[in-house]
Amino acid sequence: MQVFDLSALDRLVQVLGERGYLVIGPVLRDGAIVYDEITSSRDLPIGWTDLQEGGSYRLHKRADQARFGYVVGPHSWKRYLFPPEVRLWQLRRSRDGYLGSRQSSGQTGDNGQLDAISPATQGDLSPPRQAFIGVRSCELHAIHIQDRVFGAGNGARGAARGTPNWHDPVYARRRHDAFLVSVQCTQAGGTCFCTSMGTGPKAESGFDLALTEVIDGKEHYFAVEAGSDRGREVLEEVPHRAATDTEAEAAARAVARSVDQMDSGVRGRTMETAGIKELLYRNQEHPRWDEVAQRCLACANCTMVCPTCFCSNVEDKSDITGEHAERWRRWDSCFHRDFSYLHGGSVRPSTRARYRQWMTHKLASWIDQFGTSGCVGCGRCITWCPVGIDITEEVAAIRASDAQHREGEKSG
Amino acid sequence: MNVMKRGRKPKLAVWKFASCDGCQLSLLDCEDELLTIADAVEIAYFVEASRSISRGPYDLSLVEGSITTPHDAERIRRVRRVSRFLVTIGACATAGGIQALRNFRDVSEFTARVYAHPEYIDTLATSTAIADHVAVDFELRGCPINKHQLVELIGAYLCGRKPDIPGHSVCTECKRAGAVCVTVARGTPCLGPVTHAGCGALCPRYDRGCYGCYGPMDSPNVPSLQTWWQDRLAVSESDLIRAYRSFNAGAVAFQAGVARKGRADGGGADTDPRDAALDSSTRRDRIS
Ligand code: SF4
Ligand code: SF4
Ligand code: SF4
Predict the structure, then answer these.
(1) Chain B closest CA to A252's CA: distance in Å?
(2) Band of pLDDT at residue A91, cut at 50, 70 and 90
(3) CB distance B216 to B194 below 8 Å
(4) Is A32 helix (H, G, I), strand (E, B) or coil?
């Protein structure tokens, strides 16, 4: 383990910039800590923290000058890897024909030719290389989950490994280039439950660099681990030295603090995950779904803030002249009525059906589909739900009157 | 149906009922696109823009304003008869507008106070949406409407596709834009979760709660939001009523919320009483 000081942290931001990365990190904006472009470590939310509860988020001044003394906010790295709105392609009608598509070979409309079909704008398929500063352990896990969803890392070898030989080019390109600087959590947030989901608070792998911020009296430094070759390369350009035993111990203690907070219930929450897939599958008619549907607004905030939710829609647009058309992909949600619109109507017309779909997919069918849970316990859906609906409470309520037991009561 | 293939330009008409003209103005406001629109359609009846009028029938009628007089209740039927495709634009036409506040009071009291000779005033007791009188093919929401949505609607009509105008909440636009939720981060009451998208979350992006200009979204849960406002954001009952009694006071879902003070009930069960308020999207689907 290595250590570096506050000035080296700023150097790290500069080095990444010099290497051509657009550096994205936490900044204070509009009453929250969000992810945006930074050019110096002075842009970080120095001395601020967040207090979170169901449906509530407030910033507070800390007693110290911590750079990473907050947890997670309304943004996740998803917006930089899987942008909320992307133009997939655009095309223009040729002078003598109608719009057609090269993809539907042999079936181009009428006798037309395409003047131009450009797959996407520069920004969409050739995004800048991005470096993320402050990636929490739960967020690393969320990125790894989306890697599976979007097939990032699937190439020619994908098929051999038994995974689909397919990838989403918008995501894969951004993901391939992304440089990840993790930050270990030294305090739990009010709605965190990563210890229940096995996703934190300590980032073990999958980062390029991982920092632990240590503030001990007058001392303020970062313990640093490199997790990849390019991480080691970047670290070489930043002044650092080997950690002493005391420093390494202090860093470990800092992370242990957040584990204790969650486990003891001082901060954060817990979710019992044993047999959760079967639990939800056998409780599709549980009365709790009606109860939560009374509170749920079907507003989709939970899915928008969730770092693993990946649903999108694809819409074609044409202009007034009919000469120019574009295809856009935008974040969508299973909470939207039109999202499950098939011929004749929505498959999930009620909020009950939509909430049940969301939670059951997240915690149960996701496991069948992608081999992991779809929830990393970041707590965003709890904090940013405008009526404070809490996924951990919903699971607990269903568990408390599991269909199996209800059956038992009826017969007994 | 591709209207453009027919050889002649489709005829566009713009009709005004009880309204402030702001939505019609959005069409004139299209600036860059206006000439293109004038090229693609024949502007056959648009008295705010031109004195030249061509006879109907009209292919696409844009109707602004609500029905507040017996005369208008009759006139809208004639408009419907001469219109192939009738689209209502703005909160007045889709929900009765701000003037629907009269629906909650005795209108003769107003006329007695305002006019020296109220006996000359021939008005209805209510201000109602166009869809309460005739069949509507599509409703474009907003107070005023968003000109980009209007251009999208006309473009979609011209090539016979469904317009890309979703019925979900403002929250989705707010989150896509990366705005910080004013309710969660500041405790500001925001109507976004129950309000139809379309404005791009304009107010939340400027640190204000949504005022509900676009009326109810496709499955609004007003009672739940109301409970949270009262219990957690300490919103008084009179402020709560004021929040819903604005441009879309006449919308069924917004009225239901105000009437049902206190606890939330009747949420999202499979037979959803709120579906009564959802007919806008049923109408909407007729465009495809
Ligand atoms: S479901 Fe909620 S807690 Fe789980 S990953 Fe998504 S936002 Fe975080
Ligand atoms: S759970 Fe909360 S955030 Fe999610 S759709 Fe329902 S009300 Fe909105
Ligand atoms: S500010 Fe309003 S519109 Fe935006 S997410 Fe919050 S409740 Fe929804």
Answers:
(1) 32
(2) confident
(3) yes
(4) strand
Q: Which residue has the tokens 């080296």?
A: A8
Residue B145 lies in a domain: yes
**Same domain for A252 and A361?**
no
Q: SS3 of A67, please?
A: coil
Rounded CA separation A377/A371 (Å): 17
Average pLDDT over residues B102-113: 92
Contact, B66 vs B96, CB < 8 A? yes
Residues B23 and B140 in one domain: yes
Q: Report the C-alpha gap between A133 and A264 in whole angstroms.
A: 29
- Residue B192, ligand 3, Cβ within 6 A: yes
Confidence of residue A164 (pLDDT cuts 50, 70, 90): low
Ligand 2 atom 8: residue of nearest CA: A299
Per the structure, the complete domain to which residue A12 belongs is given by: 2-80+126-264
Is A40 domain-assigned? Answer: yes
Atom of ligand 2 nearest to the CA of A354: 5
The verdict on B73 and B189 lying in the same domain is no
Q: Which of A156-170, A334-348, A389-403 has the lowest mean pLDDT?
A: A156-170
Q: What is the pTM of this model?
A: 0.90
Cβ <8 Å between B268 and A388: no
Q: Which amino acid is at A11?
A: R
Is the CB of residue A212 less than 8 Å from the CB of residue A136? no
Beta-bridge partners for A179 = A131
Q: The complex's ipTM?
A: 0.91
User: What residue numbers bound the domain in which B78 lies?
Assistant: 3-159
Provide, rounded to the nearest whole percent, the portion of chain B with pLDDT above 90. Answer: 79
Contacts 24+ apart (CB under 8 A), B45-48: B45/B11, B45/B12, B45/B13, B45/B14, B45/B15, B46/B12, B46/B13, B46/B14, B47/B14, B47/B16, B48/B14, B48/B16, B48/B21, B48/B24
CA atoms of B26 and B171, how far apart (whole Å): 24
Residues of chain B found within 8 Å of residue A322, distances taken between Cβ atoms:
4, 40, 155, 158-159
Q: Is A309 in the pocket of ligand 2 (CB under 6 A)?
A: no
Among A225, A242, A264, identify where a domain stops. A264
Per the CB < 8 A criterion, the answer to whether B248 and B238 are in contact is no
| Strands of the sheet with A85-93, listed across from one edge | A114-118, A85-93, A324-331, A312-318
Domain boundary among A233, A264, A295: A264
